[in-house]
Amino acid sequence: MVLPRPMGDIGILERRLERLRLERHGAPGSSRDGPEAGRPWAELARSAESRAERLAAALDGTWIRGDGGGHVRIEPESIRLPIDRDRIAGLPDHPRPDVPLICLDTETTGLATGAGTVAFLIGLGWWDGDQFRQVQLLLPDQAGEPGMLDALAELLPASGWLVTYNGRSFDWPLLVARFRLNRRSPPPLAGHLDLLPFVRRVFRHRLTDARLKTVETELLGERRGHDIEGWEIPGRYLEMLRGGPVEPIAEVVRHNHEDVRSLARLMAHADRHLGASSDRRSAPAGDLFGLARAYRRTRRDRDALDCLDAALEGPTRPMPVAAMRPIRRSWTTILTQRADATGPELASPARLEMIIERARLLRRLGRHREALEAWRDVAHAGGPDAALAWIEVAKCLEHRERDPAGALGACAAADRLAQRSRLLGRPLRTVEADLGRRRVRLGRRLRRIAGLTAART
């Protein structure tokens, strides 16, 4: 078997690249179609440099020449946007106060992260005291990508955290791939804060969708006015590379600038409304419920319980019309609810869900007496969780209160709900199996207690 020879000969590689260039652009002096076709390489280079200079002039930027190629650096005016790093560090998955935060967003030639997609515009933003500064790196010609990547690496501190919106899945993996394709090591980072999962957990209940533009309008109250759509961006850049005008790129740069600034505004919003316990008292209950689940996911049970207490103690607020979703109640739910059940627990399934979550947290924190009362509230409210709540009441009475008779009574209440659900054709098999084992054990225990009592008398 003959193995292929390794491509270690630089001369072979150069000849193959030259052949690919000729196939794409044609030999010097040929008559291929397109404004860049048939032009000598020296003239193509001059054309790329002229494009870069026109871009820099149109965007009020600077044409930076380097060993790895040139790029245009744009520095928008900074804005005052203070955030309290000590408070925001207390939110789940957020970094320590002393860690630099670098907001990042890219504009690309496609939506894939493979070798054919290039990040031609990289927007960065960071805090300098109360000021939020921004820098944008624009690629006027793909040959200058190594230089732009070198400039990006210099702007990313090794001790910093990236702040992105879906950047953990798209922006940063794409940039890592571009570094490697250009034979460069990706810059090291201390961490990555992707705000998309945070928005979905905390604010999604009152948003029509989780897009950054929707977050701007429905959560932050910001409106961009006229803005380019995302699907138009790759076409505008590719059209410029083919010799088109550079002016349409200005809208792309403005779009990227607003995306980066929105990341900073979202951080400031979370700081103002959720950063401190005192601020959470005025936050919407749905936001606090989502934040509680985010805390619970990171095993910060006390913070999660604090959020739920604030949500349950605060006034009930109507949900925005755009975010309201119909609540479907099955016949099982309707017929298994107590006829005399009233109050906010029955009127608001979301509130009932918060009480259930609170009961679980209380049990995990060892506050069993409070957990028992919470489970009783759920059980008396009725609904599809009432049978499971009675089982939890039985557990607390049996193991914590040493009250097997009360535990057996709770099992009887759960059994009535399970039998009613079975008659409706919706058997609760897990509940029935648990009740069977539990009632047998409690019966034996009560008989043993009765025998010991009789022997003493």
Could you please describe the fold and organization of this structure?
The protein is elongated. By secondary structure, it is an alpha+beta fold. Helix 11 (285-297) runs antiparallel to helix 12, helix 17 packs antiparallel against helix 18 and helix 17 (386-400) runs parallel beside helix 19 (429-456). The protein has three domains: 48-275, Nucleotidyltransferase, domain 5, CATH 3.30.420.10; 282-315 and 342-383, Serine Threonine Protein Phosphatase 5, Tetratricopeptide repeat (Alpha Horseshoe), CATH 1.25.40; 385-457, no CATH class. Helices cover 54% and strands 9% of the residues. It has helices at 10-25, 41-58, 85-88, 145-155, 171-181, 195-202, 212-220, 233-241, 249-274, 277-280, 285-297, 301-313, 331-336, 344-347, 349-364, 368-381, 386-400, 404-423, 429-456, and strands spanning 62-64, 71-74, 79-80, 101-108, 119-128, 131-138, 161-164, 191-194. The model is unreliable at 1-8, 26-38 and 317-347 (pLDDT under 50). Helix 5 links the parallel strand 7 (161-164) and strand 8. Strands 1, 2, 3, 4, 5, 6, 7 and 8 form an eight-stranded mixed sheet that branches.
